Every structure is written in C-alpha cells, then in structure tokens.
Amino acid sequence: METQKHSKSEDTDLRNALALVVYYMRPEDSKLRRRYSSLIALYDKISGQDAEIKPLSIGVYGCPNKGKSTLLNSLLGENILPDAPIPSTSSIITLHRNSRLPEYGINCSGDHEKTVVHRKKPSEVQELLRKYGSHQGCESAPKWDKIEVEGPFPDADKKLNPNFVLRDTPGAEAYADRVKGEELKQDSERTYNSIGSADLHLFCVSCEDIGGESDRAFYNRFFSERACIHVLTKRDKRGDDDTKIKDDYMNKMGLTDNEEAIMQIVLTGIQPDGESGTRDRFINIGREDLIDSICECLDPQFLIDKMRQIARFIVKNYDSDETMDDLKKIPKIHIRNLETATEK
Ligand SMILES: Nc1nc2c(ncn2[C@@H]2O[C@H](COP(=O)(O)OP(=O)(O)OP(=O)(O)O)[C@@H](O)[C@H]2O)c(=O)[nH]1
Ligand SMILES: [Mg+2]
C-alpha cells in the first residue's frame, strides 16, 4: 500500500476533489460512481467527529450456507449466532458490544410487534437466537424481521473496535423468485433491504463452489457498486494454493484488476484437527488476516490511499478534459491536490 506523508488539509482537498470528480462522472458511469461514493461516505464517517461515539457496523452478506454466521461467531469468540448445514439464519441479527452492560438485552422487532428480553449468559442468548432468528427454531415461534442484541461480549476479538456493531444476515438468493420456497424469498428480501445499512460489508463465497450462478447474481446486483471485503470461506475444503483460488475467484466472478484495487480478498476456514478429525468451533485459517483487513479498511489512512488510487484511475480512464472543465467552474476547488495525486 502506498503511504505518503500529507497534511490534513491536503487530505481534505483530495477528498473534496475526488468527491467532485465522482459527482461529475457521466451517467453511464453510475456503477463506478456509486462504488466510489460508498468509500467516500465511509471515509467521512471515520474521519468525522461522531466516529468515536457511534461505532461503525460490519455486516456479512452472501448466499445461504456460505459460513457467514460461523465467521461472526469466530470474531465474537462465542457460538452465539445460529449456524447449520441447512438454511439457518432467518432474521437480520445485529450485535452491539457495550462492555459496561452486566447482561444482554435482546430486542426483537417485526411489522407491528416489538419485544425486549434480558439474559445473563451468552448461551441463553444463543438459545433465543436459535429459536427466534433461525429456521431451526420451533415452528410455532414467531419469526422476527430484526433482532438486536446489546451486551458485554467479553470474549470478542480484542483488535476489533471495543464498541463494535456486527450484523448477520439470512443467506439470500438472487433467484429467490424463481426458487421454490416462501421462506427463502422472505429471507432474501430481508437481506436485500438491509444492504447498505452497514458501514463495511463482507461478501462471503465458499471455496467449495466458487463463483456459481447465485454468487455472481448476488455480487452483480449489490456489490459491483459497493466497496467490500471479499471473504472466501471454507478454505479447508479446497487443496489449491491461495493464489490459484483467488485467480479462480476473479475469473469466475468476472472481476478485473481495477476492481481489485479498491477491495481485499481474504481466505478463511476451519482446519480439522489432524488427530481426532474433529473441527474447532471457530475459523483458524485466515482469521487474523480477516481481522487485519477489517481494521485496515476502517483506517482513514487506508481510505486516503485508496482515494489517491481512485483519483488516478478516474483521471486516466475518463474524459478528463471535460471533467476538469466542469470542475473548474465550481469555486473553491483545490484541483492541485488531485493533480498531484494523479502524477505518480
Ligand atoms: N469445513 C468447514 N465448514 C464450515 C466453515 N464455515 C462454516 N462451515 C459449516 O458450514 C455450514 C454453514 O455455516 P453457517 O455459518 O450456518 O452459514 P451461513 O452462511 O450463515 O448460512 P445461512 O445463515 O443459512 O445463510 C455449517 O455447518 C458450518 O459448520 C469452514 O470454514 N469450513
Ligand atoms: Mg447464518
């Protein structure tokens, strides 16, 4: 990653200039514009005054059975979120960490109803989430659109922001309207409606069946226009080396190098124990890499460096005369910094 010394005002100028370039792109470039806009929004939030008070949220998304809940349990250090080899998560489950709280408050909400319960132990929270937020719950239990849990989560990974917000979502299927099953349709709608509400998105695909039709449809519909970390889960199920898996992923998903410049790809998995053949509860391949990527993507310096790359890309690939003419019509714009950023 390029790291250069630059002052705060230069960063602000660069950010403003980039925002304007993004804003002035021609309509047919709306896909790129939206993707870059989401990075700018994230940067604004991180560098903004309220970032300390309002914790940033990290959401996981993808088709059913990709290991999304397992991944979050691993970050939480606790098997709290329901997971299963069949469609599992059925509610949007948001976890807020607040270490000062003595117990967990669980807030369920649906169309017209709302209910709040309190529990002391993570295992009790897990039981409730399985009952009300998963397909493994009893049939008679009401299904909630959203479940919010606020509590201490003492075993959560220490590198994460101490007041994190993690969001688990039901596996969604872009072809749900073609697929039989009212539940899958409902799940998918819940997930689709929630995309965009997290500050950082993790898009999950399994190494077992990379780049299938459903993964591609999900990506094209939601993440080709939004910056995200790509997580290739179930690494233990595939023998190839990391580079080969990543290349395969890029090819099958139709991703280009330019797209790679504004996101990260991380491989994660649960390595079975050599002697007993049993599996650990938590991912142990790529876990640290994922946490480092999350922390890096939420770092203003990382976002500034990305914006420099993006600024260079935009000026190189677009009709820069026209864009610059437009920009120059706007007073108080510091084009100088954009030009400096694009020289290298
Ligand atoms: N071998 C292996 N199995 C995994 C891994 N991650 C998850 N699994 C298993 O895959 C199945 C699905 O995992 P979940 O975490 O429930 O997947 P999900 O994406 O949350 O599924 P939905 O909530 O239905 O969308 C479970 O049986 C997990 O134990 C992994 O890295 N390696
Ligand atoms: Mg799940």
Annotate the secondary structure layout.
Layout: H1 8-24, H2 30-47, E1 57-62, H3 68-76, E2 92-97, E3 104-109, E4 114-119, H4 122-133, E5 146-151, E6 165-168, H5 182-194, E7 200-206, H6 213-223, E8 229-233, H7 242-253, H8 257-260, E9 264-267, H9 287-297, H10 300-317, H11 320-328, H12 335-343
Bound molecules: guanosine-5'-triphosphate and magnesium ion.
Can you put this structure into words, describing what you see?
The structure is a single chain. The protein is α/β, with parallel strands linked by helices and 344 residues long. The chain folds into two domains: 1-40 and 304-344, no CATH class; 57-297, P-loop containing nucleotide triphosphate hydrolases (Rossmann fold), CATH 3.40.50.300. It contains twelve helices and nine strands. A nine-stranded mixed sheet has the order 4-3-5-2-6-1-7-8-9. Helix 6 links the parallel strand 7 and strand 8 (229-233). The longest helix has 18 residues, at 30-47. It is globular and about 65 Å long. Mean pLDDT is 81; it is low at 1-6 and 331-339. The chain binds guanosine-5'-triphosphate and magnesium ion (MG). Residues 64-70, 83-85, 87-89, 170-171, 233-234, 236-237, 269-270, 283 line the site of guanosine-5'-triphosphate.
